[in-house]
Structures are given as structure tokens and as C-alpha cells.
Design goal:
By secondary structure, this protein is mainly alpha-helical. It contains 17 helices and 13 strands. Among the domains are: 185 residues, Rossmann fold (3-Layer(aba) Sandwich), CATH 3.40.50; 55 residues; 90 residues, Arc Repressor Mutant, subunit A. α10 packs across α12 and α16 packs across α17.
Length: 478
């Protein structure tokens, strides 16, 4: 096999979705398995759909996933520039070559509701002199790829084998604003960047024949093409698309649409570990055989075989994604979870109570078997870290006088531990209202009737904070 050089070439038209990241992952694994290069190229020729911040989002997403780029816009490389918008001068000579050899032509098109790209109907069989006059007179034109004279074009996809093409559309390769289209630019770039394997999504199969024709026109060696199967939505009805926002995340990182100000959660913001996200993603179209499903990125590099990619579309399963994260969560040490827990609290600007590490570890120990995400631990124990918000539905004015007696227990008890507090409260004369008083105590400290053992909570948040919350609750009810 010749030296492996693969590229991930997204367009900065918005956030990356699952299918795009999977394409990057397969390219990365194939490159690393074969000691090759993984290249990032930004295909930004479609300026009408360009989104500010999208390129930075692409780079951050790859970094979060751990897919290290060998060459790209943010680093040096021998085959740059790595943004197509910076390569227009390069494309010019190849466009001239295609025109000079009758492989492309100027198209002066009439504006119609339904466009028809037949050359004869568009009055394109004109002399060079007439073409020149139209151009100098400022008549808008595009340049179109010319259908080859032969039919029955045979092309080969690595997964699908031989494909016979009997007809082709004469696609635009240079737009009226002077920018090249995907069809032309990606072929030139792949050749000049010495790309050995083009691994991309099945949705690009329609442009595959045009790619091959252009390679033939330029007399270039064709790279090996492999078109990945689609990722279908959980119902198996249509592919997952970033144009249809579903109930589960489809982006690796969160994204804010500047035009609508709408925010979308990504897998990172939903609490997924990047290694769990990748492990889930790799199985959407690839399987090494056997029953083992948990593989680190390093493991995946060592076992990845391009031949194991399936040709059939893969149905996305959100429950399976959660299962993967649960498996990686259980593999974390207490120290790692503690670090992530504190990091998440800092993100939420929660600094109300300084809890010692030993108590953090007790909280983790209580919940580690029940949770799959760091977010779940915080959401279920938020009352440890901040005073609860009070709510009208927890208004118990009838019992509030009896509730005062609890304050004295908290004030006078020097040994503030679970056993002492529990014993004193149990001895307190609360008549028939003991259950209601205990409910009030929980509500004042936790903000709801749910949560961990009440005496455990009291021992962790401490005497000072417990009193502060009880007094706050009493004042609220009066």
C-alpha cells in the first residue's frame, strides 16, 4: 500500500453532526493504523452558507474527541493552504486547462423557474468569438463540466465494488462569482495534497462519477474511494440530519445559532465523556466481530480494519449511547470523578458551600452505582452545594411553631454528627406531628421531599449551613 494520506473536509456552514464526526473518526483510525497522515481541510467555497465560528467549532470538536490533526489550517504543512478560499489562484490554471481541452465550457444561462442544463436549449453551441464578446460585455456566465463522449463509465467503490454509470449531469464547476464548486475544488485539492484514500459519506455517491471523470481529464491517478453508509434516526426512517433537531444531541459540542439565538446542546454539554462518544460512534457502521464493545481510542487504532465497515445504513440508538457513557463512568476512579464534579460545579458558578473532599467522596459513594453522568450526581445532590429555592407548595404554617424547637437542637449540639442529631430529634416531643416536622426539615434543607438520608445531608452541609437554611425557611413561611 502506498503512503496513506486521508482528509476530513467539512464545510463551515454550521455545527458538525454525528455523521461528520464518524467520517472524521474512520479517516483518523485508518490513517493511524497505517502510520499515515490525517489532514483537516476546510471546504469554504460556498460563501452564501458560510457561518461565522463554524471553522473554530470544527477544530474544537476534533480536539474534544481526541482526533489529532497532522496537517490543517491551524498548523504548518507542505500542502497548504488548507482552506479552499485561500486556494483560488491554484484552481485557475486547471480551469483554463479544462476549457482549452474542451472538457468544460462557458454557459450563459437564461433565468428560468426550472433550470434545464441542456447545452443546445441554452444556446451554448457558439463560437469562441461570440463567447469572448459576451464575457467582455459583462454577461453573467458559469463554467460547466462537459459530459464525456463515452458512456458506460465504470467506477469502483472500495465497499460497493464496480458501479456502471450511463449518464451524467453537466455540473457547474465554476460559479458566476468566480468561485469553484465542490466538484472541481475537492478533486484538485485531493490530487495536490496526495490523498491516497477518499473516505466520505454515502450522500456524496452522486458526485463520484464526476470526480472520476475529472481525474481522467487531468490524467491523474485516482485515489481509492470509500463511501460510508448513512446513520439513520432511531426509527430507521431517514438519515440523522442537523436540519432536523431531534430530542437527543446530534452535535459533539453545543452550538448557538447567531441568526435565531437558539442554543443546541452537544454531547459534551450533556455530560458525555469523549471516549464514550467515540466508542458509541465507531459502532455505527463498523464492527470488529466478537462480543466486546468497549474500546479505547488506542485499542481502536490497533484493531481497526477498513474492510470491516458495513455497507448497510446504521440505526442510531440513544439508549445505547447512554449505556456506553455508563460503562466509562463506572471505570473512573473516585479521584477522577471528584475532579470532574468540582469542574462541573465551577462551570455552574456554584461556590456557596465549601465541602471537604472526604464528604465529596461520601456523596460519590452513595450515587456512583445509580448514575451514568457527572450531571446526574450534581442534579440529584444540588442541595449539598447551594441553598434550595423555596416554593409556595411547601407552605406549612400550622406546624411552623413546632419547627422552632429544632433550632435549639442545632444551636446547642456541639458534637454535630449523624448519630447525635438523630438521637436528639427522635427524643424531641413533637406529638402526632413528627412526620410533618421531619418533612419540614427536609424541605428547608433540600427544597423537596426527595433526596439522600436526611441526617447524612445534615452532617455534610454542617451546623452553620443547616441553621441558615432552617431560619430562611421559617422566615419564608411566616
Amino acid at each position: 500500500m502506498k503512503k496513506v494520506r486521508v482528509r476530513f473536509a467539512p464545510s463551515p456552514t454550521g455545527p458538525l453532526h454525528l455523521g461528520s464526526i464518524r467520517t472524521a473518526l474512520y479517516n483518523f483510525l485508518f490513517a493511524k493504523k497505517n502510520k499515515g497522515k490525517f489532514i483537516l481541510r476546510i471546504e469554504d467555497t460556498d460563501r452564501s452558507r458560510y457561518k461565522s465560528g463554524a471553522e473554530n467549532y470544527i477544530i474544537k470538536s476534533l480536539k474534544w474527541c481526541g482526533l489529532t490533526v497532522d496537517e490543517g489550517p491551524a498548523m504548518k504543512g507542505n500542502y497548504g493552504p488548507y482552506r479552499q478560499s485561500e486556494r483560488y489562484e491554484i484552481y485557475k490554471k486547471y480551469i483554463k486547462y479544462l476549457l482549452a481541452n474542451d472538457f468544460a465550457y462557458y454557459a450563459f444561462e437564461k433565468k428560468k423557474k426550472k433550470r434545464n442544463y441542456n447545452r443546445k436549449k441554452l444556446y451554448l453551441n457558439i463560437s469562441n468569438e461570440k463567447t469572448f464578446k459576451k464575457i467582455i460585455n459583462g454577461i453573467v456566465f458559469v463554467i460547466r463540466f462537459k459530459i464525456p463522449k463515452f458512456f458506460g463509465l465504470k467506477i469502483k467503490d472500495f465497499l460497493r465494488g464496480k458501479i456502471i454509470i450511463n449518464s451524467l449531469d453537466e455540473k457547474i464547476i465554476l460559479k458566476s462569482d468566480g468561485t469553484p464548486t465542490y466538484h472541481l475544488a475537492n478533486v484538485i485539492d485531493d490530487h495536490l495534497m496526495k490523498i491516497s484514500h477518499v473516505i466520505k459519506g454515502e450522500e456524496w455517491l452522486s458526485s463520484f462519477p464526476i470526480n472520476i471523470c475529472l481525474y481522467k481529464y487531468f490524467y491523474w491517478i485516482t485515489p481509492i474511494f470509500l463511501h460510508l453508509p448513512l446513520i439513520l434516526n432511531p426509527l430507521g426512517q431517514g438519515k440523522i440530519s442537523k436540519r432536523k433537531i431531534l430530542k437527543f444531541p446530534i452535535f459533539p459540542l453545543g452550538w448557538k445559532d447567531k441568526k435565531t439565538s437558539q442554543k443546541y446542546k452537544g454531547y459534551r454539554e450533556s455530560g458525555y465523556f469523549p471516549e464514550a462518544f467515540l466508542n458509541m460512534l465507531v459502532f455505527l457502521g463498523w464492527n470488529p466481530g466478537g462480543t466486546k464493545e468497549i474500546f479505547s481510542l488506542k485499542n481502536l487504532i490497533s484493531i481497526f480494519q477498513i474492510e470491516d465497515i458495513n455497507i448497510s445504513s446504521a440505526k442510531f440508538n440513544f439508549k445505547k449511547a447512554e449505556w456506553f457513557n455508563c460503562k466509562y463512568f463506572k471505570k473512573k476512579t473516585y479521584k477522577e470523578i471528584l475532579f470532574l464534579l468540582k469542574k462541573e460545579l465551577k462551570k455552574r458558578n456554584i461556590f456557596y458551600i465549601k465541602i471537604k473532599n472526604i464528604f465529596f467522596l461520601k456523596i460519590i459513594n452513595f450515587l456512583i452505582k445509580k448514575c451514568s453522568f457527572i450531571n446526574e450526581i450534581i442534579n440529584q445532590t444540588i442541595y449539598f452545594f447551594k441553598s434550595p429555592d423555596l416554593n409556595e407548595k411547601f407552605f406549612f404554617k400550622k406546624n411552623i411553631k413546632r419547627f422552632h424547637s429544632l433550632i435549639w437542637i442545632f444551636l446547642n449540639e456541639k458534637k454535630f454528627n449523624i448519630l447525635n442529631i438523630k438521637t436528639l430529634i427522635q427524643k424531641l416531643d413533637l406529638d402526632q406531628k413528627r412526620y410533618s416536622i421531619m418533612q419540614l426539615l427536609r424541605i428547608s434543607l433540600v427544597g423537596s421531599l426527595k433526596g439522600l438520608d436526611l441526617f447524612f445531608i445534615i452532617s455534610i452541609i454542617g451546623k452553620k449551613e443547616s441553621l441558615k437554611r432552617i431560619i430562611k425557611f421559617i422566615n419564608y413561611c411566616l
